[in-house]
Amino acid sequence: MTIAALMAKQRPNRSSNTRVHPVDAFLDERGLRKEAGRTVFEAGKRLFVADCVRTMDEYDDMVAAIVFDGEPNQAQLAVHGDALAFACTCDNGMDGRFCMHCVALALAWINRMHGRRVVDGGGTSGTGDVDIEDVLAALMVADKEMLVAIILSQATAHPELMHGLLEMAAKAKAEGAIGMNDEAEEFDLDAARRDIEMVFTEYRLGRAGSAGIFAADLVEIAHELTGLVETGVDRGKLLDLIEFILIQTAHATERARRDALRPALSAIAGTYCLILHAALRRPEEQAARLLAVALQGESTNLAQTLARSLRPLSDETVAKLRAQCVASWENAHFADDGADEQTEMLATFILEFASEYRDTDLTLAVLTKDPTTGMDYQAIVQTLQKAGRNDDALAWAERGLAALPLHDSVPIVDYLKGEYRRRGMQRQRTEMMLIDFAHRPSTATYRQLRISAEEAGMWDEMRTRAFETVRALTSAGTEPDATLAVQMLVHDGNIDAAWNEALTAGCNNETWLILASHRSATHPADAIAVYTARIEELAGTTDQESYAEIVRILQLAAPLMEVSEPSFNEYVAELRTLYKRRRTFIGLLDRAFPDRASTTAQE
User: Fold this and answer.
1) Among the ranges 252-256, 453-457, 597-601, which has the highest mean pLDDT value?
2) Which helix (H) or strand (E) holds 162?
3) Dist. CA 215–CA 207, nearest whole Å
C-alpha cells in the first residue's frame, strides 16, 4: 500500500454528534476568550477559519489535532480533575500557555462534533452559470474518495445529514456489509515502511522539496497511523513503524539546517506516545519500550523531545517510567574519562523528564552521582535553590568548594559570597572574597576584600594573606611584575612602601605615573624623574596618541619643574629643538603651552 493510500485510512474513535465528550463542558467561545486572551483567541480563530486544523482525533479523555501554522503543531485538549488541560508542541504550548493552536482545535472540535459553527468561516464561492445537470455530470466522473470527503465534510455542519448517514452505516454494519478489520487485514505495514524509507532517502538526497513540506508530510503520515491501532493490524509492527518514523525524523533533524524539522519531531513524538498507550496494555511495557527508543538517537534531540511528549501516557505509566529511569541510572557505567554515549543520552532524557514534571529528586539523582566540575556543582546548587532547599544547597556548595581546584570554583564562590551575606556569616563571606581575589587579582577585588574584612574585623589578617597571594603569583610568573602589589599599597595609602616595591620589582607605566603623582608633593625630584623618563620613551614613537600623552605628562610636570634644573621652559625648548620636524607634535605643544610657544618658524 502506498503512502497516499495510508493517508486515507480511518482515524480512531471519531464520535458522532450524539456523544458527549468530557472536554465539551469546558468549550465555549466566552471561556476560550478568557483562557487564551483576546489576541491569542483571534489568532486561533483565523487558523480555524483558514482550515488549518487537520487529522482531528478523539480519545476517551482527550481530543487532538495537527494544526498547520507554516509548520505542523500537535495540539491536545483533555480534562484533568475538574479543569481543562491543554498541550501543544509550539513554543507557547511548551511554556504551558494556552496557545492559538489549542484555540483553533477547540473551535474545530465544537464545530465538527456538534454541527454548529462558533465563528463565521466567511465567504462563498461564485458558482457561475452552473445548473443541477452540470453538478450531476461532475459527480458521475468524480473520484470516490473525493465524494466521500465532501459528504462527510457537509455532514459535520448539518446534523440531519449526519444522523441519516449514521443510520445508514448502522444498518449496513448490522447486515455485515461493512467491517473495519476487512480492510485492515489487507493493510501492508511492510510496504508502508518501504515507502516511508524511500521518503527519507529522497529527503537525504535533496529531492523531497522544502523541509517544511517534508515535515508536514511526516506528521500527517504518523498521525494517520493512529487510526490503525483499533483495527486488525499487527500492533507490534505498527509500533515498529511509528518508531522508525520517529527515529529517522530525529536523525534528519540533526542534519537539517536551522530548526525546520523540530516541530515535526515534537508532533511525531506525541503521536508515538498516543499509539504506544493504545497498542500496549501494561504500563511497565509502555515505559520500557519508550525508554529504549529514547536512547537510540544519535544526539540528544530524540531523548529531549520524547521526554517532553509524555502527556498522552497514563499517570501509572509515567510513574513506571520514572522508576525505570532511576534503576537504569543507578546501574549506569562511568569510566575514568566520564560517561559513555549511552549514559549521556540517559542523563539527557532523565533531566528533561524531571524538568517536565518538576521532579527535583529525580533531577538530583542525575546531578549528584558524579559531579566533577564547577558547572556540575553549580547545577546542583541551583536545583536545590529553586526547590527552596537552601540548607542543602549551601552544603553542596561547600562540598564543591572543598573538591574543586581554584580555577574551577568561581561559580561556587560567587554563590557562597551571596549566601553567607544573606545568612549574616561575615567571616565566611570574607574567606570567599579572598578566594575570589586569588582567582581574579585586581585592585577592584582587593577593594571588595577590604570592605568585607573590615566589616568582619579581620582586615589585618586578610591584608597579609592577600599580599602573600600576590607575591606568590609574581614568583610563579603569573604576574610579570609588582604592578598589582604597588597598586594595593597605593590603595592602602602606603606610598613609600609602594615606591620601594616599584623600585625593587617594577611596575607598569601607568602605575609609575600614579606613584609620581602621589610623591610629587614630598619628593618632587622622584616625580620629575618618572615623568621625564616616560616622555623620553614616548618620544621614540611618531603617532599622535603618543604626542598627546607627552603633552599630558608635561602638564603634570610643569608645576614641579619651575624651580628645577633644567627649568620647565628650558626643557620644553629642548623638546622643540629635538623634534622640530614633527609638525603635529610642535602644534600640540603650542596649543597646550601658548605662553611658551616658540617665536621661530617651524619647518
Assistant:
1) 453-457
2) helix 159-174
3) 14
